[in-house]
TrEMBL record:
Classification via NCBIfam families: lysidine_TilS_C (TIGR02433), lysidine_TilS_N (TIGR02432)
Identification of the protein by name: tRNA(Ile)-lysidine synthase
Lysidine-tRNA(Ile) synthetase C-terminal domain: residues covered: 364-432
Compartment(s): Cytoplasm
Family as reported in the entry's similarity comment: Belongs to the tRNA(Ile)-lysidine synthase family.
Superkingdom of the source species: Bacteria
Length: 442
């Protein structure tokens, strides 16, 4: 083994040292130069080192005819190396950016494949990091974007690691030439209409002719910004701790924050804290769309402001901001007669409903608010339901899906609201378990 090869293997093994206890190392294998070198390096290291189980995954996007032959090439390479290969076919959703749509589909497949204590390895290198920095700079990214691709992050139930970020494209090319590796040349990589290809083929050659160390310098800048982003994340944790308070509607299972502690922060710290909180929920808005936060924060009186984002909405109610997505944004269909109140009732698009204690005499029905409902309360007489919900501070977005129990035309109970949820004397209560999934959490 030559010195350059040994040096590259040593560096790779050092970068992977914290992950030696993983159950599986799975290589995201495209058949291109970078992932071919990574897979070859790992397969040969496995012959002399005690490593986790090694496998590969190929994601077939189906975007070009030439790609139909690539899974067979990847299978041939993996077979020669003794590495199991999983081929996953994905559907790329149409959109404004084919690059982003393909990436979303690809990483969706990676998330599905990555289990607990497993590691997905991707082959991005130092030149890729420099291209990412320049690409995001031209799009007006902030510190988070300019910190580039993280070396590691959570992926699905496991983690993603980029162990070659300190390796140059030239080093990978030299390794491939030395070991006479064969790889796929994707024709789309030459298409200058894609921004990254334009930067790679048109811009970086000019930059490196004038500044030979440009890629190394830019990758170092990304590392500095990554450190700065780490400090901003620490500040966000501090600021969010005071806003992440308990409330009487925690049983909704929705992400929410108390508004007052956020409002006391400077505008920049507000955006920093919210960016950190929203990053797990949705794609973050660009600078021009943060006015939606200002409108939400500054709304007064009876206003029910909503800030619509890529994967959901922020609502304001009861002195808090609430994240809604998925089924929470759809109107649940009518329910009707509850034929067997002794069993759990599945509410379409709206969770589950049970009656605890003695089942009241029927026939019973489940309805949702339409307006004008009246409830007869002991010692209070007939009360308007809207006023009762106002007294309890029930968020507006909950009211239309709060299950109501009827016997004929009589409103007997409002689920989960103490004092309204049943009959203490008869010993029964209406218990609603709201949506437990598809809330847009990522």
């Amino acid at each position: 083994m030559s010195l350059p090869t040994r040096d590259l293997s040593t560096r790779l093994l050092l970068n992977l040292a914290p992950w030696r206890n993983a159950t599986t190392w799975r290589v995201a294998f495209s058949g291109g130069l970078d992932s071919t070198v990574l897979l070859h390096l790992l397969a040969h290291l496995a012959k002399t080192q005690s490593l986790p189980a090694l496998s590969a995954i190929y994601v077939h996007h189906g975007l070009q005819a030439a790609a139909d032959a690539w899974p067979q090439h990847c299978q041939s390479v993996c077979g020669a190396l003794g590495v199991p290969l999983q081929v996953v076919h994905v559907q790329v959703q149409p959109g404004a950016s084919l690059e982003r749509a393909a990436r979303d589909a690809r990483y969706g497949a990676f998330v599905e494949a990555t289990q607990a204590n497993e590691l997905l390895l991707t082959a991005q290198h130092r030149d890729d990091q420099a291209e990412t920095l320049l690409f995001r700079l031209l799009r007006g990214a902030g510190v988070r974007g300019l910190s580039g691709m993280p070396r590691e992050r959570v992926l699905g139930r496991g983690h993603l690691l980029r162990p070659l970020l300190d390796v140059t494209r030239a080093e990978l090319e030299a390794y491939a030439a030395e070991h006479r590796l064969s790889w796929i040349e994707d024709p789309s990589n030459q298409d200058r209409q894609f921004s990254r290809n334009y930067l790679r083929h048109q811009v970086f050659p000019v930059l490196t002719e004038r500044w030979p160390q440009a890629t190394a310098t830019m990758a170092r800048t990304a590392a500095h910004l990554s450190e700065a982003q780490g400090l901003l994340d620490e500040l966000a944790h501090i600021d969010l701790a005071s806003a992440n308070t308990a409330n009487e509607f925690d049983w909704l299972g929705l992400p929410s924050l108390e508004l007052a502690p956020l409002v006391r922060l400077s505008a920049a710290r507000q955006r920093n804290a919210l960016s950190h909180w929203l990053a797990a929920l949705t794609r973050l808005p660009d600078s021009d769309h943060w006015s939606g936060w200002d409108d939400l924060r500054d709304a007064t009186g009876d206003a029910r402001p909503v800030w619509r984002l890529a994967e959901g909405e922020l609502h304001r109610a009861g002195g808090r901001i609430w994240w809604l997505s998925g089924r929470w944004l759809r109107v649940p269909p009518p329910v009707g007669l509850w034929t067997d109140p002794s069993t759990t009732l599945v509410l379409p698009e709206n969770g589950e409903l049970t009656i605890t204690g003695q089942i009241p005499a029927g026939p019973l029905q489940i309805r949702y608010r339409e307006g004008g409902e009246v409830m007869n309360l002991p010692e209070r007489g007939h009360r308007d339901l809207k006023r009762l919900l106002n007294e309890r501070g029930v968020p507006g977005f909950v009211r239309g899906r709060l299950p109501l129990l009827y016997r004929d035309a009589q409103l007997l109970a409002v689920a989960n609201l103490r004092g309204l949820d049943g009959n203490e004397q008869e010993g029964w209560h209406l218990q609603w378990d709201p949506l437990s999934e598809d809330q847009g959490l990522s």
